[in-house]
Amino acid sequence: MPTSTPGGGGTFRRAIARWQTWWVRLFILMVVVMSVAPVPRLWALVCMVVPLLLFCVRPPAQRPKPVTVHVPVRGRWAACNSPGSKVPSHGVRAHGQMYAVDLILDAADEATDTVPSLGWSLRGRKPEDFPSYGAPVFAMAPGTVVHVTGQVRDHRARDSWPTMIWMLTLEGFLRVLGGARNILGNRVIVQHGDGTYAAYAHLRQGSAVVRAGDRVDTGQLLGQVGNTGNTSEPHLHVQLMDRPRPETAAGLPMHWAGVEIDDQRLSHRWATGYAKPSAVPDFPANGQIFEATAPQGAASSDAT
């Protein structure tokens, strides 16, 4: 059950941030207009700089006491891009991602747990080739479902030099233009009783088993891990926010119940060294393996 209430404020900044996708689109439009129409240099500069400045506006950052919720997966997982190592965990504050974490199912043994070498294939592996794909995702706290997106197509992995370069350049730019749907992919957003919101992103196409308006309990099945949105391979992206819309939300720190960190093993593939001073304490750091258990009294669910 959540135990911390987020703060508010920053109404004007949130209003600007709400249209962040459109600021990028306006910038592109201005570039096109300036390239085909004779416009005074000063006006051209203003028309291009202003949208970029507005795009950089984010909701006010908050650092309240971490909200206690239950871990959203079961079994052995590894954390990456974790607030347990640094904040912002994903390097950005946009779309409520300040304290977001990515989770990868731990299916490798110590002998094979190394950073994979990138080849030159023009097609990445199918999402079905990854152990995380199809793993069940569970609600971290009781609440009401306020948003479900479920029809974004699962794409192949970006696990070669050509596909990785594509993801980090043109594809990444196009996803920014497309907004939250293209970045987060299929997602479920749940409102909790204390005014916090949990977003479960990159879900498998068609796997969501809840609809907007449904009540959910802690540990209730929501959907399956997929490979939709801005992803290099199937994984679960989960974050806590103070607003239902990622565009206007500030990220909030979490504390997970139901987690036992394995101090004897580290995933070398995802480990990044020592945690930075900004890191959230007692949260799995990059590369840490943890065992996730169901909340007491929760019914078992299978999503295969």
Mean pLDDT: 90
Which structural class is indicated by helix and strand composition?
alpha+beta
What value does the Rg take, in angstroms? 20 Å
Provide the helix percentage: 10-25%
Order of helices and strands: HHHEEEEEHHEEEEEEEEE
Largest sheet geometry: 10 strands, antiparallel
- The number of helices is 5
Shape by Cα distribution: globular
The strand count comes to: 14
How far do the termini sit from each other?
27 Å
Low-confidence stretches: 300-304
Beta-strand share of residues: 15-25%
Keywords:
globular, 20% helix, alpha+beta, 304 residues, 5 helices, two-stranded parallel ribbon, ten-stranded antiparallel sheet, disordered C terminus
Describe it for me?
By secondary structure, the chain is of the alpha+beta class. It has five helices and 14 strands. It has helices spanning 11-17, 20-36, 41-55, 161-178, 180-184, and strands at 67-70, 75-80, 101-105, 136-138, 143-149, 186-192, 197-203, 215-216, 221-224, 236-241, 251-252, 254-257, 259-266, 288-292. Strands 2, 3, 5, 6, 7, 8, 10, 11, 13 and 14 form a ten-stranded antiparallel sheet that branches. α2 packs antiparallel against α3 (41-55). The chain starts with 10 loop residues before the first helix and ends in a 12-residue tail after the last strand. Mean pLDDT is 90; it is low at 300-304.
